[in-house]
Amino acid sequence: EAGVAQSPRYKIIEKRQSVAFWCNPISGHATLYWYQQILGQGPKLLIQFQNNGVVDDSQLPKDRFSAERLKGVDSTLKIQPAKLEDSAVYLCASSLNMPGAGYTFGSGTRLTVV
Amino acid sequence: GQQLNQSPQSMFIQEGEDVSMNCTSSSIFNTWLWYKQDPGEGPVLLIALYKAGELTSNGRLTAQFGITRKDSFLNISASIPSDVGIYFCAGHQIQGAQKLVFGQGTRLTINP
After folding, report:
1. Any bridge partners for residue A12, and if so which?
2. Strands B100-102, B19-24: pairing kind
3. Which pLDDT score, from 0 to 100, does residue B2 have?
4. Does B92 contact A99 at a Cβ distance shorter than 8 Å?
5. pLDDT tens digits, residue range B31-82?
6. B50 in contact with A at a CB cutoff of 8 Å?
7. With an 8 Å Cβ cutoff, are B48 and A100 in contact?
8. Pairing assessment for the beta strands A19-24 and A5-7 based on DSSP bridges
9. Buried b / exposed e across B48-80, counting CB within 10 Å, b at 16+?
10. What average pLDDT does the segment A69-84 reach?
11. Is A107 at the interface with chain B, CB within 8 A?
12. Is B40 exposed, middle or buried (0-12, 13-18, 19+ CB in 10 A)?
């Protein structure tokens, strides 16, 4: 089966600019996650969608980060305006809607804010 | 937020040696997962554990779900160069939105 697709792979922007990332999950996976992975750390959950509804966005900095999954398939994550500390790899993952289901991750988007 | 304490942070071993790493939490988890991440890629699932006390193998990898539900370990036997990477433990909390929480990772380096 096709994996989780993410684009772009790399992005370099200046602080205060805006940026958007795109994710296409595995077909049939109802649950989609966006994680932020800062260099040298484990991934940290930003937001979790169940179909097109938000399940958990408690760790999403809502003053600058937003995410949507309008049709319950693709998702976009936006940062506006970006700060230097937003430099990280942004990982998208998807899973079946089952307790304890393993997540399949995309390759991520490496964002550098200068 | 909930944290998983993973140790060691890094390991430097000779090819052929066995490896052991573990993960602990102050809270109970209902699943434990072990992932490996190669440079420039997302984490890839190695082993999933669903029951307290469960011991599961995947080739040279063996992982166990602690009886207290607050810890897990991963062993790699007879390490080979392609085992190099960062290993993460992760767990689903027993309550709430079932989000997957990750440890800080163990970076494995192998000297040929």
Report:
1. A112
2. unpaired
3. 57
4. yes
5. 999 999 999 999 999 999 999 999 999 999 999 999 999 999 999 999 999 9
6. yes
7. yes
8. antiparallel
9. bbeebebebeeeebbbbbbeebbbbbbebeebe
10. 95
11. yes
12. exposed
Tell me whether A53 touches chain B (CB under 8 Å): no
- Does residue A43 have a cis peptide bond before it, meaning omega lies within 30 degrees of 0? no
Q: Is the dihedral of CA A91, A25, B56, B28 positive or negative?
A: positive
Give buried/exposed letters for A23-52 (b at 16+ CB in 10 A, else e): bbbbeebbbbbbbbbeeeebbebbbbbeee
- Which H or E run includes B32? strand B29-37
The rounded Cα A43 to chain-centroid distance in angstroms is 11
> What's the CA gap between A17 and B92, in Å, rounded?
35
Q: How far apart are CA B40 and CA B8, in angstroms?
A: 22
CA distance A93 to B63: 23
Selecting from A41, A105, A108 the residue whose C-beta is nearest the C-beta of B104 gives A41
**CA pseudo-torsion sign B104, A60, B1, A23:** negative
* CB-CB under 8 Å, B92 with A100: yes
Q: Would you say B72 and B34 are in contact if contact means Cβ atoms under 8 Å apart?
A: yes
Pick the closest to residue A47 from A33, A36, A37 (CA basis): A33
| pLDDT tens column, A89-99 | 999 999 987 76
Give B53's DSSP letter.
T
Spell out which residues of chain B touch residue A56, defining contact as CB-CB under 8 Å: 96-97, 99
